[in-house]
Amino acid sequence: MTELTAPCDITLYGILDPNRARGRDLAKLANAAISGGATILQYRDKNAGIRELIETGRAIKLAITGSGVPLLINDRVDAALAIGADGVHVGQDDMKPADARQLLGESAIIGLTIKSEEHAKSAPVGQLDYVCIGGVYDTLSKHNPTSIGLEGWQKIARYFRDNSSELPVGAIAGIDLSNVEEVIRTGADGVAIISAMFMADDVESMSQQLKTKILNAKDCL
Known about the structure:
- The protein has 9 helices and 8 strands.
- By secondary structure, the chain is an alpha/beta fold.
- The protein has one domain (about 10-215): Alpha-Beta Barrel (TIM Barrel), CATH 3.20.20.70.
- An 8-stranded parallel beta barrel has the order 1-2-3-4-5-6-7-8, surrounded by 6 helices.
- The model has no long low-confidence stretch (mean pLDDT about 95).
């Protein structure tokens, strides 16, 4: 695992998905995102077999070694272990965070997707390093039956603010240059972005622009 100085900095959270990368090398895109200011990365591939998942994950991990930016794996704790990743991000139907923690250890980063108030109330906060609430807006990157909007995001986030003020709370889905500032102004600690970053012609430049807007919005709070 990477020696981390800020393991839960989800300010600009890039999600690498081969289906939203325009056929480009994910390891190179990871480096570009980090150069532009990404603070944490996740590798997600719902279609890959375990061997391909591990091979690609290892390539990404090798490419970003020394950056200090952690790499998480979506869903697959077994792949995270084989890759030597810094943790996992799990959904409501994946391995329970407590089980992932037991397998990965206390130093691992474990994040959880939250889509409703019910999810928030049942979240095992003591086992988590952050949560990501969404989908905030409509997106083509992942199937979300209905977007919750900023008002819905704030309503769910309020539960975590009231009960675990130190837990980073992020936002996901449909976030881009046009709306990232308003998301941050609602109180999000960071944003998870797929298409707006990794479908861009220049991933480094796009990441820089997103990071600038995020920091500007935080300065105004």
